[in-house]
């Protein structure tokens, strides 16, 4: 991506923010789809707090600095990307737009960032990567659940590696699905015609089950660090990242088991409601990582300033889930590009307005926190 602001503020443009995209994208979906994509679990506390928790931080800008050559680019998973944002693995993208993960892959390649491919992708890892490569250089990671059928899990790992993925993101927060009243109320089922080719499920097989029962049948809840990490390590040379970590204790285990990184994540508030916002869990995870393994974050990131704050608190990179879904629903590949352009432009302006000329200059000193009745406190 070129290092100049993308013009998003045209007067006839109705989508200026991720909030606009959420509104317009959601409008295009029937209730059962919109509820599936947008909801969190149980009381919707964590899904809400993931975004709102960012607002307690205030930015401490430095002024009168030469920011004419400010660069947003950074190296993540061994490749230089245009800014510290990538796309989280989210299943069932063809339910938002027929092109699904293919459109997302093309948009990511066009905008120079990495994409996570869900095990519940509606297209194969080979198809998704190929679609991106037709547009430009790509970086993909394969999301994995611990599976009852280890032979299937191994086939996915091997296909991902052969297709060119650089890492496995092992989702560790889902021994069972969260409590999702909306899915149950709507008797949510995967729409006819959609397949999950990576887990080798045809539309006929999927039709017979609810989302919940098919997940339970396939996913292993007897997983453990000792049983799963060395086993994955023995099957692949790809990096191994643990997605869904929220505590210092688990970061220490990830280090002990030789993982390459963790994604501080609560699954977008869809699994255990009542967990803390990821931005609030980030500091203890960064401290426990102690620079020995990498720490990324997802959940609730909706503005360029949110990205800036997460980087200031020690994340190497941020990932987004729903903004991509809203982009797909709004206008396929172009809608995803729109989501990425909004966040890129906001992040770049935020860097320039805080006097940062490179991502590595963003630090704790860039943030403060407002405590009751007090002046801005430094972190
Ligand atoms: C519709 C949807 C499907 C998802 N599917 C998966 C998945 O298959 N595997 C996974 O590890 N996480 C999945 N996630 C979680 C995302 O990877 C990510 O953690 C979350 O969406 C980030 O929060 P955000 O949506 O607020 O940006 C899904 C999230 C959504 C909203
Ligand atoms: O719903 C989810 O959060 C999720 O992880 C998922 C799992 C399988 C298919 C689609 C989404």
TrEMBL record:
> Which stretches make up the FMN hydroxy acid dehydrogenase domain?
10-372
Keyword vocabulary terms for this entry: Flavoprotein, FMN, Oxidoreductase
Provide the GO MF annotations for this entry.
Answer: FMN binding; oxidoreductase activity
User: Please, which domain of life does this record's source organism belong to?
Assistant: Eukaryota
Q: Per its UniProt record, what InterPro entries does this chain match?
A: Aldolase_TIM, Alpha-hydoxy_acid_DH_FMN, FMN-dep_DH, FMN_HAD, FMN_hydac_DH_AS
Binding locations of glyoxylate: 145, 180, 267, 270
Which cofactor(s) does the record list? FMN
**Cellular-component GO terms for this entry:** cytoplasm
The record's Gene3D superfamilies line, in alphabetical order, gives: Aldolase class I
* Binding sites annotated in the UniProt record for FMN: 89-91, 118, 143, 171, 243, 265, 298-302, 321-322
Q: Which residues form the active site?
A: 267
| Family named by the database record | Belongs to the FMN-dependent alpha-hydroxy acid dehydrogenase family.
What is the name listed in the Swiss-Prot or TrEMBL entry for this protein? Oxidase FUB9
């Amino acid at each position: 991506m070129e290092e100049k602001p993308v013009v998003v503020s045209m007067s006839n443009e109705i989508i200026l923010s991720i909030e606009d995209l959420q509104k317009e994208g959601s409008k295009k979906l029937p209730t059962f789809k919109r509820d599936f994509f947008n909801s969190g679990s149980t009381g919707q506390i964590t899904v809400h707090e993931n975004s709102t928790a960012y607002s307690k931080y205030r930015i401490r800008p430095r002024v009168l600095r030469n920011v004419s050559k400010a660069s947003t680019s950074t190296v993540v998973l061994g490749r230089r990307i245009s800014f510290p944002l990538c796309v989280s693995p989210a299943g069932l993208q063809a339910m938002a737009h027929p092109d699904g993960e293919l459109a997302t892959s093309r948009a990511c390649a066009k905008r120079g960032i990495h994409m996570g491919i869900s095990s519940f992708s509606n297209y194969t890892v080979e198809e998704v990567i190929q679609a991106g490569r037709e547009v430009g250089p790509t970086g993909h990671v394969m999301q994995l659940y611990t599976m009852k059928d280890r032979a299937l899990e191994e086939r996915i790992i091997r296909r991902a590696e052969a297709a060119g993925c650089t890492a496995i993101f092992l989702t560790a927060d889902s021994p069972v699905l969260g409590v999702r009243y909306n899915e149950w109320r709507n008797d949510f089922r995967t729409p006819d015609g959609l397949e999950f080719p990576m887990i080798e499920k045809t539309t006929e097989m999927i039709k017979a089950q609810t989302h919940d029962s098919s997940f339970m049948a396939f996913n292993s809840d007897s997983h453990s660090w000792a049983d799963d990490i060395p086993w994955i390590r023995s099957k692949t040379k790809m990096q191994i990242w643990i997605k869904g970590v929220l505590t210092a204790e688990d970061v220490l285990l990830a280090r002990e088991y030789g993982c390459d990184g963790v994604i501080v994540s609560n699954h977008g508030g869809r699994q255990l409601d009542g967990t803390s916002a990821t931005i609030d869990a980030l500091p203890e995870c960064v401290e426990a990582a102690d620079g020995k393994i990498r720490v990324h974050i997802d959940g609730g990131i909706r503005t360029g300033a949110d990205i800036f704050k997460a980087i200031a608190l020690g994340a190497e990179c941020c990932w987004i889930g729903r903004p991509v879904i809203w982009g797909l629903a709004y206008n396929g590949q172009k809608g995803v590009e729109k989501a990425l352009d909004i966040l890129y432009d906001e992040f770049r302006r935020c860097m320039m307005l805080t006097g940062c000329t490179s991502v590595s200059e963003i630090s704790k000193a860039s943030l403060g926190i407002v405590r009751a009745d007090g002046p801005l406190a430094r972190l």
